[in-house]
Each structure stands twice: as C-alpha cells, then as structure tokens.
Amino acid sequence: MASAPTKSxxxxxxxxxxxxxxxxxxxxAKSLFPIVGAQGASAxxxxxxxxxxxxxxxxxxxxxxxADLKAVALYGAVMGLMNLSFYMAxxxxxxxxxxxIEFTGPLALALIHSRKLIHFVWIALAVLGLGLLLPLKPGxxxxxxxxxxxxxxxxxxxxxxxxxxxxxGHLHAGRTVAWGMTTAALLLVPIGLVxxxxxxxxxxxxxxxxxxxxxxxxxxxxxxxxxxxxxxKRSFGVLLSAEPAVGALAGLVMLGEMLxxxxxxxxxxxxxxxxxxxxxxxxxxxxxxx
Length: 290
Description:
This protein is mainly α. The protein has one domain. 77% of the residues lie in helices and 0% in strands. It contains eleven helices and no strands. α1 (4-30) packs across α10 and α10 packs antiparallel against α11 (261-279). The longest helix has 27 residues, at 4-30. It is globular, with a radius of gyration of 19 Å. Mean pLDDT is 89; it is low at 285-290.
C-alpha cells in the first residue's frame, strides 16, 4: 500500500507523464508527415482517439438533450480544427515554437479581463516572446509565415475550445470528450482521405497512426484526469505551462530540431508569462473529480 507522500506525488507524476507523452506523440506524428501529410496524421490522431474513447466511455448509453448535443458538437468541431491547424503549423516550424505560439491563446483569454498592474507585465512578456518568434525580417532564424499563421489559428481555436468546453461543464467529462472527439473525427478523417488518399489504409501506417493517437491523446487525456483529481487548478496550470519547453526538448531529441538562443528565450518568456498569470490570479480550490 502506497504511503501518503507517495500518493500525494501521483497526480504530479501523472501530469508530467501527460505532458511528456503528448510531446513525444506529436513528435512521432510529425515524422509521418512526409508519407500522409499533416492532414493524414491529424486524421489518424482524432480518428483512432475517437474509437478508443467510444469504447471506453460508451456515451450512447446516456443520450444528450438537443441543446447539449449541439454544444458538444460545436466543441468537437473546434477541437478538430485546432488539432488540424496545429499539425499544419508543424509542417514548417519546430514543435516547441508551435506550442509556444499556441499557448498565447489561453494566455490571452486569461488576461483579457486584466485589471492588476502586474498582469500587464505578463502581457508585455508574452508580446516580447512572440516578437522574438515572429518572422518580422528575412534571415536564417526567421520562421515560416504560413506556419506561424497556422499556429496562431490554433491559439485562437484553443481559446475558443476553452470557452466552449466550459459550456459543457455540467456534462460528464469522459462522455463529452468521446462525443467531441467523434465529431472531430467526422470532420478531419474525410480531409485526411482527400490529401493522403489510400495510403491512409496501409496496415503499417494504420498501426503507426494508432500509436500517434494513443501517445498524443488517449494516454495524456487519461493522465490529466488523474492529475486533476489531486492538483489545485493553479498548480495544474503552472506545471502545464512547461509544455512548450518540453515540446522543444522532444523536437530536439526526436526530430533534430535545433533552436536558436533567441528562440529558447522566446519560449522562456511565454512560459514565464503563463506561470506569472496563473500565480497572480485568485487562488482556486482543487478541481472536483468529473
């Protein structure tokens, strides 16, 4: 039987595991781009994730009201488009930088009603980080504008995903994600088929696509549910803010993506802005199990 200190560490270990597996899974998905494209990899991720979630939660046993079904469908559509936009960004910009840009979506959402002076410091820090990343002038260190645009689109969609997710907060979390991911799959799988065509059905690629879904969706979502039961929301957000840095390390190790010193500084600025925002907002109680 685990001791009390060991039990208290389990949620934090689960969150770290969620971040690492997500970044590793995304790096693995990027390695499939030359074969099936970003669209095909996105189809694999949401398609297999939807199948896994449907098997686990069997949401059809609990029918939704018409209004809730509409809300969940919209939530799922945004989830799918967010995933596709992020993968499209990964075609031309490094993983860690794409995550950092995407993080500005929820960060902006958190700061949109800022009233404290310190919050404007975090806004300035986030803007500084973006300024170091954006391709404002040509050169070897400049990022592809199209890739940055897709990452920025993913940021906007992430903010919208949070807003729509709150509207489904009264529903069971697991079943909601299952229906949402199914909606995302219905949207993205046809797109993947258009671009990757029959190559999506090659047995070897299907197996690799399943690995992508398990690593980047099934395992992280499951571990996050464990983490949310024992970590206060503030601490959860602070730890999650490390994701761009972990993504940069995963990109370096798995994809050989070397970042310039200014790009590492940009990631650090955005991570610091995210952590600072969380620490200077009112404390909240631990999230109740869903």
